């Protein structure tokens, strides 16, 4: 999920009410018996790419962005555990005082035990986005699908915020996303999903019950596949 959804109606930071609502939606999915891994962005706190454009060293900026995802992950973990959802945070950058290091076999074991695993810290490397981290972790844990929770209803032919005549796709292929340069996920993330035949559903998290609808196979948002 994008970090922006944690802002609620604010313009920066973490809104505790928004996080609690999201945690409740995640709990509804877990109660279906679904194994769920979560990757949270950090855009509500810090955007490495934008900082780089303003003159900051790209490597430093990207690491700062990764640390922002850890802050968001800990906030989400706290909200989930208040709802009695057992959760583990695993980070790509080791910080043993607050979370486990990412270990693929351990992550899978947590999922098998019904725990929600929150993958923080991106890939642990600069120049890779949170989208790429989500695709990588999904492939590593052998996920059935990626559900990309955003602030828009799905994938559009152009930015729906800027253009009132933007049209949403119900279905689209990986190749079309890449050829049209659609801002669903970055090209590396899309290519990784294509190579591993991993479908992506893009949907609006701010509509109550949407996560559960997606998981139950209802027609919500846009599905990206081969």
Protein model, in words:
- This protein has helices spanning 16-30, 48-53, 58-82, 104-112, 130-140, 174-180, 187-195, 210-215; strands at 37-39, 87-91, 100-101, 116-120, 146-150, 155-156, 168-169, 171-173, 200-204, 222-225.
- It starts with 15 loop residues before the first helix and ends with a strand.
- Helix 1 (16-30) packs across helix 3 and helix 5 (130-140) packs parallel to helix 7.
- With 226 residues, the protein is α/β, with parallel strands linked by helices.
- The model has no long low-confidence stretch (mean pLDDT 93).
- The strands form 3 sheets. A 4-stranded parallel beta sheet has the order 1-4-2-3, sandwiched between helices. The protein has a 4-stranded mixed beta sheet with strand order 5-9-10-8.
- It folds into 2 domains: 1-143, Carbamate kinase, CATH 3.40.1160.10; 144-226, Acetylglutamate kinase-like (Carbamate kinase).
- The chain is globular.
């Amino acid at each position: 999920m994008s970090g922006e959804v944690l802002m609620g109606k604010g313009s920066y930071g973490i809104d505790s009410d928004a996080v609690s609502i999201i945690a409740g939606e995640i709990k509804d999915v877990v109660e279906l018996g679904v194994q769920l891994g979560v990757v949270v962005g950090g855009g509500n706190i810090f955007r490495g790419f934008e900082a780089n454009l303003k003159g900051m060293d790209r490597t430093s900026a990207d690491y700062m962005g990764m640390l922002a995802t850890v802050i968001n992950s800990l906030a989400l973990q706290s909200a989930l555990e208040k709802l009695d959802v057992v959760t583990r945070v695993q980070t790509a950058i080791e910080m043993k005082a607050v979370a486990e290091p990412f270990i693929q076999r351990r992550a899978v074991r947590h999922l098998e035990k019904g725990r929600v695993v929150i993958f923080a810290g991106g890939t642990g490397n600069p120049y890779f986005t949170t989208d790429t981290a989500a695709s990588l972790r999904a492939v590593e844990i052998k996920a059935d699908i990626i559900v990309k929770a955003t602030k828009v209803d799905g994938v559009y032919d152009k930015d729906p915020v800027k253009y009132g005549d933007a049209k949403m796709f119900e279905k689209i292929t990986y190749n079309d996303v890449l050829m049209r340069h659609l801002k669903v996920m970055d090209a590396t993330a899309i290519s990784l999903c294509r190579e591993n035949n991993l479908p992506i559903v893009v949907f609006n998290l701010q509509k109550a019950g949407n996560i559960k609808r997606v998981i139950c196979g209802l027609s919500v948002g846009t599905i990206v596949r081969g």
